[in-house]
Amino acid sequence: MDGSTPKELTMFFESIYAMMKEKSSMSETAFDLWFNDFHLLSINDEKVVLATPHNFKRKTIVERYFSLVEESVFDALDYKPKVEIICDGIVELQSFIPTTGKVTLSKGRYGTASEEETDEEDMVSYGLNDEYTFENFVVGSSNQHAHACSVAVANDPSGEIDYNPLFIHGPSGLGKTHLMYAIANEVHKNDPSKIIICVKSEEFLNEMIDCLSKKNMKKFREKYRRADMLLIDDVQFIAGKQSIQEEFFHTFNTLYDAKKQIVLTSDRPPKEMYTLEERIRTRFSQGIIVDVQPPEYELRLAILKKKADKGNINIPNDVIIFLAERLNSNIREIEGALKKIGAVSLISGKPVTLEMVKSSIPDYFRENKPVAETVNTILEVTARKYDVSVEAILGKSRTKVIKTARNVSMYVIKKVLDLSLGDIGKMMDRDHATVHSNIKTVEAEMKTDDKLNNDIFEIMTEIKS
Q: What confidence score (pLDDT) does residue 160 get?
């Protein structure tokens, strides 16, 4: 593999980098600090050479994180070459690594600049990542509402549609961050003069702590409160932190009162952020709240095909179908599996086949029973609990006990398998809206009905045993 093309090096490094993030116990901010400009120089059957442009970073990575890098290389490539880390003095950011530098007018592109190189007049945006756009976001029933609202905000940053704030929530790995960056990129493309700040809540917290320690909160406030658009990822992490909630509250109010667009993402809706101050929870609910669900089967197929094409990986239809049926938790899992399959195929020189996939990424399937088998188990256990038949649950009867069994079945399927509402609907011959309504009914009744809570607990205990 000596003489690998830049595209091949990028693909190999994507797989290694994804494995490093998966194995790392560091915070995302700490990980980015040491590895944001890490890159792959060369790869062959005997040696993999990775590099960083800064000698102090190389020293730290070798001393503290070499085992993480080495294990990630072995797991990503499925063989054990010698791993070498050098300092090459060249900043070569790969497009798939999130950039958290400043975007400057003088560069005319998304680039990074140090504090010394960038004055206040030059700095127009911060933390953009041009990898994520609306064009490369795959839309399905599980994310179409969130996508539509994101596009609306991006095309109307002045706030005439009154989607302020836009609050996007859902489990990890479903595309919330993609939508956030896509909004920022679209606004920046349409009006490069806009001051746009994209930041993770942890970074917001670290910056505030740093400014507090240097007694320079004026700098912190001037940066965030002059933004035309503020986008904060994983905002749930500010909950329970008194000082950051206070600062965030005043920053939010300043921007909101000035009709500046705010976009927030979280792993849960505002009402479930129990340690968040009520006044902030109320602010989050002032605009529009949208969720993203795990991708339904059709969306998983579309994502697999699009990602395979983008990565120039030739995957037969039977393999695409096999993966779509089994990789049902989130988009990040799909991307990770594809990167590893592509790397194994390129290294071995062999085409992608069903047998190769089963042997090269067994970890993705080892824990999972077939979804249909688990759904059948849930239906059977629930039917026994309520003394009805599975056929009745799947049928059209609206008698109270059968309706309860049907609603509980949907709720438990969602809890146990975390499937999209669309997928649950297809399995139970209902539409997306009906499934959503029935699950919400169960959740509402559980707040006051001890017997229902006990029934569901016993059903889930039996299923897990």
A: 62
